[in-house]
Amino acid sequence: MKHFDETATREPLAFARLVPALHAAFAAEAHVPPRHVHSIETAGADKGTVLIMPAWSDAGFLGIKTINVFPGNSARGLPGLHATYVLYDAHTGVPLAMMDGNELTARRTAAASALGASFLARTDARRLLVLGSGRIARLLPAAHASVRPIDEVRVWNHRPDGAEALAAQWRAEGFNAQATPNLEAAVREADIVSCATLATSPLVCGEWLAPGSHLDLIGSFTPAMREADTRCFEDARTFIDTPEALQKAGELLDAIAAGTLRADAVQGTLAALCRGERSGRTDREERTVFKAVGSALEDLTAATLVWQHAGSPSP
Question: Do residues 312 and 2 touch, judged by C-beta distance below 8 A?
């Protein structure tokens, strides 16, 4: 079995390659069972969540990701997410590779965010606001710049020093980036608002979102988590990554309960967009929302790219 460390996992996953690969994967067929979700509680430790996410394709690959989510890790100076990924031969079950699941998760999540924006953000969207400063948030400017002409990036975080450090990192990468302490003002000015946090209370208020803006919600993935209030969905065209979002996303469940969103009014999934079954943005003034909880199909697509980049044979 081959081993791909963080660097080896990252190198084949440039967004110019990964975003189109996800587009093709969502347009095609794959086998993606519902994820397993388990709460982890041990004496004297913070509560965590473990997710087990399998998927396989007719191309002959089977992958299983295990991801541990411990929001309290930020107080320890540790990432909130830790993941591993194992790729198998789907014909025989033989293990092929172990990959860095953290890098795989971060890059495929940012790429899916950009894929959603490629359909839903205005074609001239250039001002990106990022909420969060973790591994996924760090990748969002590069991901969105692969599909939209991003030339101004702002970042907000509940810890201002984290936002300042991330803005400095982005400036070193060539982005016009600044930290902002005023979340409301930053949301009102943004063309794309992308949330990559583990928040359990809403951060973005619907009344702040400008006409023609695109709200991207990719951080929360359980009913107890939420990054946006119920008014964010009012008078907006809402899309989801997979049908599972309607059962898992706290923001959607809250909005449906409040009556600002009907489940049958959700416009479609990434697969429907990628297959051309649903249209994306229809005019400059409409507000759009993309809510993602993640899909094992994204992991399998990224892992397959890593495997193929290494010149490894197909099963």
Answer: yes
